Description:
Elements (H helix, E strand, L loop, with lengths): L4 E10 L6 E11 L6 H20 L30 E5 L17 H19 L12 H10 L4
Parallel strand pairs: 2-3
Antiparallel strand pairs: 1-2
Amino acid sequence: MSFPNGCHVCEVEVDPQTGAWQVVAYSAIDDVGNVVHPVIVEGQIHGGVAQGLGQVLGEEVVYSDEGQLLTASFMDYPMPRADNLPMMRLGHHVAPCTTNPFGAKGAGESGVAGSLPAAVNALLDALHARGVRELDLPFSPRRVWEALQRSTPA
């Protein structure tokens, strides 16, 4: 067993008129133990961050009342693209794993494990002053705008 860990920080900006929001800065420090192949590890973290941000930004499986899948193609299913993602500042804190000879820990899920809560907390923090205390995923512009319309500023 190994237990990678890290810290992810996400900064967002919200347009209260439309509910649209974007990630403007993203930083992460991960401990994946000894980094055996830096390029692969960086790619895994980038991909994991993209996956986590995609879930927060709008990925959602939607069915009609009759059970027909409405998000069956990538034309209907929003997924993050390069223009939705910020430049990421990534770093590593190396604490070698003691249960394998390489001293490596898993890196494949560290990006998503950190990005999802970092983005959720960033957006809820940005909306807090406008009275929004909770919001269900995904945080699509429509959902953010509706939450702002229902809220009372603090």
